[in-house]
Write a structure and sequence with these properties.
Structural class: mainly alpha
Radius of gyration: 30 Å
Number of helices: 3
Order of helices and strands: EHEHH
Strand order of the largest sheet: 1-2
Shape: elongated
Distance between the termini: 84 Å
CATH topology of the largest domain: Double Stranded RNA Binding Domain
Largest sheet: 2 strands, antiparallel
């Protein structure tokens, strides 16, 4: 297909853009990756489960094909990564005591300021 962008008059006569179509449902990927891709909500995935990538970054069709395949590879790698579950942590006893001590000191300082300002007048 014809590409937009750089290339001058050459753009009007050379078809260098690439539309890569990858059928996720009929691929040989593991089932969990297929489900993750289909449930990702990516606007490039059609209702039939086909991922469509357009590449027109380069002036040659071969480089655009390589770029599209590289992007497909990155999308699949991201889908295959599993995030580790975050375990909620609690503040240590020492940090709780320090926080309460600083609050008490700050309150005492402000209380002293308040009392001094009343006696000045």
């Amino acid at each position: 297909m014809r590409s937009q962008g750089a290339g001058g008059q050459n753009v009007n006569k050379v078809s260098s853009a690439i539309h890569l179509r990858f059928d996720i449902k009929n691929s040989l990927l593991p089932e969990y990756i297929i489900q993750k891709l289909l449930n990702s909500g990516d606007s490039r995935i059609t209702l039939d489960g086909v991922l469509i990538l357009k590449s027109q970054q380069f002036r040659t069709q071969e480089k655009n094909r390589e770029a599209a395949l590289e992007r497909l590879k990155q999308i699949i790698i991201l889908a295959s990564q599993t995030l580790t579950q975050r375990r909620p942590t609690r503040p240590t006893r020492n940090s709780q005591i320090k926080r309460l001590d600083t609050k008490t000191k700050q309150a005492r300082t402000k209380a002293l300021r308040k009392n001094n300002s009343l006696t000045d007048y």
